[in-house]
Specification:
This is BEACH domain-containing protein. InterPro entries: BEACH_dom, BEACH_dom_sf, BEACH_domain_protein, WD40/YVTN_repeat-like_dom_sf, WD40_repeat_CS, WD40_repeat_dom_sf, WD40_rpt. The protein contains 14 helices and 27 strands. α2 runs antiparallel to α3 and α5 crosses α6. The protein starts with a helix and ends with a strand. The N terminus is likely disordered. With about 650 residues, it is α+β, with helices and mostly antiparallel strands. Strands 1, 2, 25, 26 and 27 form a five-stranded antiparallel β-sheet that branches. A four-stranded antiparallel β-sheet has the order 5-6-7-8, with no helix packed on it.
């Protein structure tokens, strides 16, 4: 398998110089993220998720794992990307230089004591399995490779300890990271309750211990860690790390000068080419499988730096996102678009146009301008042309499923409907040149006990979410068309749903209340509306500029005509602990501090209302008593404009003041 991998790497390298150059230019211009570019380099260097011995390698980017808050404007927060992990401290660097100089250079095959700085590697099957040990199948893989779980102190249990080991304390540890550190929070949780053993102090290993700035939340750790990877500092220095791993400082004199040489067997392709002895080949392959392999060298000259990063400031090509300056939002006096009849049902921001459809209509295909409509008295459905407003097909397929209350079109060949029958129906459709070829039921999904009132679909995450009057939402697998889990605990009928395409979070609205969930059905937080009455939420959407952006918000449209904007914040909470003892008159301040410190403090994620928008108030400084309900929301492709559709068929825009 390794030899096939080497041939594949060679083939990819020979065949993709244009792709490599295009990606480099895009990265330099800031058109693709640091994460995307690193994945591209890993791929063309032959690193793949399918082989733990050649798993994608990512850098440690932070050096601060003890602060309460992370200052990404301070260079001291970051790891030195110009140096390998073995040279992050001067003392450690000198130790490896001394080792290199003390090893005598000897010739001949099968030499296990060749001159090098490191006899271990920054990426190997056991390193990958140890990071992912809390998830299957990696738990089983780790047990197979290691012959059982390691001593608890040596298991991956703390981000801070892992950094200290790889950068300072352990000369046998120079490991880098894997991509999951920047997008997958699951590997930090021991959700499977695997018995990993106990530390010497009796503490059982469970979830990975996070740095203070993560506030005890694995999702927040991933968000901030990804934000650090995309920061200006890392963007300006990432090319130096690329030189070490994929570039000219990987081998030769430049590698020696950079304290970046590994045992010759780690350069497995070179070793296999230079020997004909099958025993030596077997030794090299065994060495690689146990200790790791240097990626294919992609660059023989210094990698160019990134020419610039995208700023938050506005420009003609990158205007200010509307949620960056919520207090500066303004709305136009005249509608952006107005429908001749009925409430607005859907707003789609396409590449060159904004499509607005009335209630009970969905655009099936932007290219063909075909729409799907429902809600007729006889429970039929229809297909029409958005441009001509003409219906070209009426279909009775829905008649057997009662009144249709909601629908979704994730792609031009799939329609999902639901309503009073309580069943979610997934249909295969084919429309060609204003002609319906067929509409066939692929599968009915049974689970609700009352009418289904709303749907949300994500092809990216392959999930369907249905909300019902039975006070629950159900998550369905879009590929398998099977039940995943249920979101329960709503106080009333579900009125609106949305899925965050970037991170997979789900928001469900029941009356005036918002609930935020993970794709696994874990409740993250909900709004606290006990202090004041609020109108029902009729529509909801996420802003999705960057998955690591803490400025992202949730926007809700309400029955009273107001738009409310929410963001998640972390607040300190007093966790249950020993009760505070009464302070005697003779007890001093120091003693009082000690007793109060016994109570543990944690963090709680909350949805906080950060802005309320009202058209009449914005235009005339007075609230209207009969504002139309907000029926749909959309965000422009540039994120600069919030588009709001109402029950009177009008679409208005909200955006920041022009600078």
């Amino acid at each position: 398998m390794l030899i096939q991998g080497f041939l594949f790497c060679y083939y990819v390298r020979r065949k993709t110089p244009v792709v490599e150059k295009a990606a480099l230019v895009k990265w330099q211009k800031g058109e693709i993220s640091n994460f995307e570019y690193l994945m591209h380099l890993n791929t063309i260097a032959g690193r793949t998720y399918n082989d733990l011995m050649q798993y994608p390698v990512f850098p440690w980017v932070l050096a601060d794992y003890q602060s309460e808050t992370l200052d990404l404007s301070n260079p001291a927060t970051f790891r030195d990307l110009s140096k390998p992990m073995g040279a992050q401290t001067e003392k450690r660097k000198q130790m490896f230089i001394q080792r290199y100089e003390e090893i005598e250079t000897t010739e001949g095959e099968g030499n296990l004591s060749a001159r090098c700085h490191y006899c271990t590697h920054y990426s190997s099957a056991i390193i990958v399995a140890s990071f992912l040990v809390r998830m299957e199948p990696f738990s089983h893989t780790f047990l197979t490779l290691q012959g059982g779980f390691d001593i608890p102190e040596r298991m991956f249990h703390s981000i801070k300890k892992e950094w200290e080991s790889a950068s300072r304390d352990n000369t046998g540890d120079v490991r880098e990271l894997i991509p999951e550190f920047f997008y997958l929070s699951d590997f930090l949780l021991n959700s499977n309750h695997i018995q990993l053993g106990c530390m010497e102090d009796g503490t059982a290993l469970g979830d990975v211990e996070l740095p203070p700035w993560a506030k005890g939340d694995p999702q927040e750790f991933i968000r901030i860690h990804r934000e650090a990877l995309e920061s200006e500092y890392v963007s300006a220095h990432l090319h130096l790390w690329i030189d070490l791993i994929f570039g000219y400082r990987q081998e030769g004199l430049a590698a020696v000068e950079s304290v970046n040489t590994f045992h010759p067997y780690f350069y497995a392709k070179r070793g296999l080419q230079n020997t004909k002895d099958p025993l030596i080949k077997s030794t090299i392959l065994g060495y690689v499988s146990n200790f790791g392999q240097v990626p294919k060298q992609l660059f023989t000259k210094p990698h160019p730096p990134r020419s610039g990063t995208k700023k938050d400031g506005s420009s003609p090509t990158h205007p200010t996102p509307f949620f960056f300056k919520l207090d500066k939002l303004k709305t136009a006096k005249q509608p952006f678009r107005e429908l001749p009849r009925g409430p607005v049902g859907q707003i789609l921001c396409l590449q060159k146009d904004v499509v607005v459809l009335e209630r009970n209509r969905l655009l099936l295909s932007p290219l063909s301008c075909c729409f799907f409509s429902w809600g007729f008295p006889d429970n039929t459905c229809a297909f029409g042309n958005y441009g001509t407003e003409k219906t070209f097909a009426v279909c009775e397929s829905l008649c057997d499923w009662g009144e249709t209350l909601c629908a979704a079109c994730p792609n031009p060949t799939t329609i999902i409907t639901a309503g009073t029958s309580t069943v979610v129906c997934v249909w295969d459709v084919s429309v060609n040149k204003d002609k319906l070829t067929h509409m066939q039921l692929r599968q009915p999904l049974y689970g609700h006990t009352d009418s289904v009132t709303c749907l949300a679909v994500s092809e990216v995450h392959s999930i369907i979410v249905s909300g019902s009057r039975d006070l629950t939402c159900i998550l369905w697998d879009m590929e398998e068309l099977s039940y995943i889990t249920q979101l329960a605990g709503h106080p009333c009928s579900i009125s609106a749903l949305a899925i965050n395409e970037l991170i997979g979070e789900i928001v469900s609205c029941a009356g005036p209340q918002l609930y935020l969930w993970t794709m696994k059905g874990q409740l993250l937080t909900c709004t606290d509306i006990s202090c004041w009455p609020q109108p029902d939420v009729l529509c909801v959407c996420f802003t999705q500029r960057h998955e690591w952006d803490d400025k992202n918000v949730i926007v809700t449209g309400c029955a009273d005509g107001n738009i409310r904007i929410w963001k998640t914040e972390y607040t300190r909470t007093q966790l249950p602990g020993p009760p505070e003892e009464p302070v005697s008159p003779g007890q001093d301040g120091a003693e009082r501090d000690v007793s109060s410190s016994c109570q543990v403090k944690g963090w709680e994620r909350r949805l906080v209302l950060c802005q309320e928008l009202n058209r009449s108030l914005a235009l005339s400084q007075r609230r209207s008593k009969n504002s139309p309900a907000i029926t749909t929301l959309a965000i422009s492709r540039s994120h600069a404009t919030l588009l709001v559709g109402d029950a009177w068929g009008r679409v208005f825009t909200w955006s920041c003041d022009s600078v």
